[in-house]
Amino acid sequence: xxxxxxxxxxxxxxxxxxxxxxxxxxxxxxxxxxxxxxxxxxxxxxxxxxxxxxxxxxxxxxxxxxxxxxxxxxxxxxxxxxxxxxxxxxxxxxxxxxxxxxxxxxxxxxxxxxxxxxxxxxxxxxxxxxxxxxxxxxxxxxxxxxxxxxxxxxxxxxxxxxxxxxxxxxxxxxxxxxxxxxxxxxxxxxxxxxxxxxxxxxxxxxxxxxxxxxxxxxxxxxxxxxxxxxxxxxxxxxxxxxxxxxxxxxxxxxxxxxxxxxxxxxxxxxxxxxxxxxxxxxxxxxxxxxxxxxxxxxxxxxxxxxxxxxxxxxxxxxxxxxxxxxxxxxxxxxxxxxxxxxxxxxxxxxxxxxxxxxxxxxxxxxxxxxxxxx
Length: 374
Prior knowledge:
This protein is mostly beta strands and 374 residues long. It is built from 3 helices and 28 strands. The chain has helices spanning 105-110, 171-179, 200-205; strands spanning 2-7, 12-19, 23-30, 36-43, 46-55, 69-81, 85-96, 99-104, 117-120, 128-135, 140-147, 152-158, 163-167, 184-189, 210-214, 218-223, 226-231, 241-251, 256-264, 268-274, 280-287, 301-305, 311-316, 322-329, 334-342, 348-354, 357-362, 367-372. It starts with a strand and ends with a strand. The relative contact order is 0.11. This is BN860_07602g1_1.
């Protein structure tokens, strides 16, 4: 069943959103002033405008997409309290075209006077294109972002004192930056749904895995601190890699079984297996029905672990109003289930998964809808 859960006013548009089991945070602007961004909170069916200002450098609106807030993400960070022991605290990370802004979720919901913590990308002739953030075991948030000119930047935000530090790029990321033949379109890393553990502490310790997708039709994987490049072969001129994601399916003592998915225009998704010995293999070609030629770089995909043993799920948006789902049994190397859901008119993108729900934006960025999965 498809349900529209939020519709903005006709003179406004949604930059992006992030969802939890109880709350959806939305970044929204007017079409006339896209650099003035409001953060909204949708909770238990009630919408609230939060007193958390986001001001994007106005000159940025002259370049690229009208959406100046690229991504909202919620990051968990461990905190050791001498009286309470280990606590998990949550932070909203705002990825903008001109910087990164971070705020504790608790402060947002209380809607008190909020101190602004913002890292500004100082090159006014360049803007942030893609980014990824994850909490670490030492009470920091590690942020990795790329820019339109192909620059990679890594930051650490100390949640205790509220300061950003620019880090020297790890060797693997530095090597990747020197290797790209085009600009990046997405950076993805580990999350609860694509890592095989119920223990949050394990995820905080394992934050080195990344996949970077590039318009040069290559997947750049950072695995255990090393760079691996996987070209996507046999593509036509109309095919381009526009998104990628990864999952750790199984962990061993000193290695892991990983899967990577690439979203390709005018085709669908390509699924790769990387064995625990480091061998890459193309295992599935997951095709979409292409009614009209695809051009949009917005159409995303993701991969997640299912509770069913040995099973992964790949979800993809599309340009013709459909959501595609494929369930893959990696033990038998078979697609055990595939579904096509007609959910909207136009582009379906910004897909996220919470519990048994899939959320997405429509092509006009005017509404957020959800699909209930069995």
